[in-house]
C-alpha cells in the first residue's frame, strides 16, 4: 500500500472515527427513546450497534487506515511502525472526526449540536475497568495481526467491544478520541468533562500494559517492520 499518502490515511481515520462516534451516540439516543424503561435493553442495543459498525468500518477502511483510536495509533508508534509526526497527524484526525461525529449524531436526533454531558463517571472501579478494556483491545488487535489473522481483526475487534460493554463497569470506552466526543452529547452515551482526564489516564495505562504484554507474548513478531496495526499487511 505504498501509494497511501498520509493525507488519505488521516482522512480515513477522521471518517472512520466520525462514523464510529455517530453510531455510539446515535444508537444510545435511539435506545433511550425506544426502550425508555429498560436500561439493560438500552445497553444491549447500544453495544450491538457499536460492535457491528466497528466490523463494517474496519473492513472498509483498513486498506487505507483503520485504527479509529489514539491508543492503537500510539501502540503502532511504540512498535516503530509509524513515526511521531505521522502518529500525531492520525491522532488529530481521529479526535476531529470524533467531534464531528458527535455533532452529527446530536443533530440527526433533533438535539442541539453540542450539549456537554452531565453523566459523572468518576470512580476507581470505572478507571480500573478502562485499564482492563484498553489492555484487552490492544491484545486482541495485535494478537490477531501477529498470529497471521489479519482478515479476522475486524470481527475480533467488533466482538470484543460488544462484549466489553458488558463485562466492564465503564462500558468500555477504551478510546481517547471517542471519550472526547462523548463528552459533547448529554445523552445515554455521554461522559461529563470532569470525568474525562481520569479516563484518558486509565486508557493510556491500559495501552502501555498492552504493549508490555504483547512484547512478552510475541517477542519476534513485534520487531517485524512489515506488520502495521492500522493498515493491511504489506
Automatic annotation (TrEMBL):
<keyword id="KW-0472">Membrane</keyword>
<dbReference type="InterPro" id="IPR000425">
    <property type="entry name" value="MIP"/>
</dbReference>
<comment type="similarity">
    <text>Belongs to the MIP/aquaporin (TC 1.A.8) family.</text>
</comment>
<dbReference type="GO" id="GO:0005886">
    <property type="term" value="C:plasma membrane"/>
</dbReference>
<dbReference type="InterPro" id="IPR034294">
    <property type="entry name" value="Aquaporin_transptr"/>
</dbReference>
<keyword id="KW-1133">Transmembrane helix</keyword>
<feature type="transmembrane region" description="Helical">
    <location>
        <begin position="125"/>
        <end position="145"/>
    </location>
</feature>
<dbReference type="GO" id="GO:0015250">
    <property type="term" value="F:water channel activity"/>
</dbReference>
<dbReference type="Pfam" id="PF00230">
    <property type="entry name" value="MIP"/>
</dbReference>
<feature type="transmembrane region" description="Helical">
    <location>
        <begin position="87"/>
        <end position="105"/>
    </location>
</feature>
<feature type="transmembrane region" description="Helical">
    <location>
        <begin position="51"/>
        <end position="75"/>
    </location>
</feature>
<protein>
    <submittedName>
        <fullName>Aquaporin</fullName>
    </submittedName>
</protein>
<keyword id="KW-0812">Transmembrane</keyword>
<feature type="transmembrane region" description="Helical">
    <location>
        <begin position="188"/>
        <end position="214"/>
    </location>
</feature>
<feature type="transmembrane region" description="Helical">
    <location>
        <begin position="12"/>
        <end position="31"/>
    </location>
</feature>
<dbReference type="InterPro" id="IPR023271">
    <property type="entry name" value="Aquaporin-like"/>
</dbReference>
<keyword id="KW-0813">Transport</keyword>
<feature type="transmembrane region" description="Helical">
    <location>
        <begin position="152"/>
        <end position="168"/>
    </location>
</feature>
